[in-house]
Amino acid sequence: MLSQTQLDIWTGTEALLFDLDGVLTPTATVHESAWRRLFEEYLAATGRGPAYSDTDYFDHIDGKPRFDGVRDFLASRGIVLPEGPLDDDPDHETVQGLGNRKNRIFNAIIEDDGVAPYPGSVRLVEAARERGLKLAVVSSSRNAPAVLRAAGLTEVFPVVVDGAVAAREGLPGKPDPATFHRAAELLDAPRGACIVVEDAVSGVQAGAAGGFRAVVGVDRGAGSEQLLAAGATFVVNDLAELL
Questions:
Q1: What pLDDT is recorded for position 7?
Q2: Please, where in the chain does CATH 3.40.50.1000 lie?
Q3: CA–CA gap between residue 63 and residue 180 (Å, rounded)
Q4: How far apart are CA 81 and CA 83, in angstroms?
């Protein structure tokens, strides 16, 4: 494993496994806004509380598959809802319905505002491609292909293991390392030669548990100390720091 002070990620590395939202694109803030709107409106409409707070996203939702985020937030308020079918109506008061409502809010924001990737992340990706490294996106979101298209990154990542792939193949979500393992397998890269790049505590935990060469934490709000405690090898504020 790399030490916290060694930022040479190239030697001995065959592949980089990137989370998407908050690592390659600033869509983590869009997800955060969509979750806030969902639960503020839900709690207000139902008269349940306590009110949604600034820490709820990182404490209960960040980095998790969408419906796990719904369940864990509701559990924090002592709320239990029927599961509902996977394609449940977004206006229904079920776990699946609330999750689909959040997705509707997210897609509306993306459609209105578009997506621009982080410049520092693009620079790192370009450098990795020049060196012949294999690249994959590993995201809990089912919106990963749409976000990659909007950001102009679809052709860069031949392997995308997102929430839809995880559901189809029965892979548990982060903090379980299964989706990262699947990406390494699809890239035909040994885990010990892969580096995970993550901004969420649950994603860092997944990378740390997965037997990978290193886990780069990107602090977009979770906090450097929290990411290191979760198992990050080191933490940066921008991926251009690795160049």
A1: 55
A2: 15-26+116-242
A3: 13
A4: 6
- Span 133-147, pLDDT tens digits: 999 999 998 889 989
What order of strands is seen across the sheet that includes strand 214-218? 159-161, 134-138, 15-18, 194-198, 214-218, 234-236
Given the DSSP bridges, would you call strands 194-198 and 159-161 parallel, antiparallel or unpaired? unpaired
Residue 181's alpha-carbon distances to 47, 50, 55, 173, 217, in angstroms, are 42, 38, 30, 11, 18
Q: Are 210 and 228 in contact (CB under 8 A)?
A: no
Question: Would you identify the CATH topology of the domain 29-113?
Answer: DNA polymerase; domain 1 (1.10.150)
pLDDT for the residue numbered 113? 80
Tokens of 92: 């229904």
Place of tokens 């598959």: 65
Name the segment(s) of the chain with CATH classification 1.10.150.
29-113
How is residue 155 written in tokens? 């052709």
Residues belonging to the active site: 19, 21
Question: What CATH number labels 15-26+116-242?
Answer: 3.40.50.1000
Q: Which residues contact 129 (CB under 8 A, 6 or more apart)?
A: 135, 156
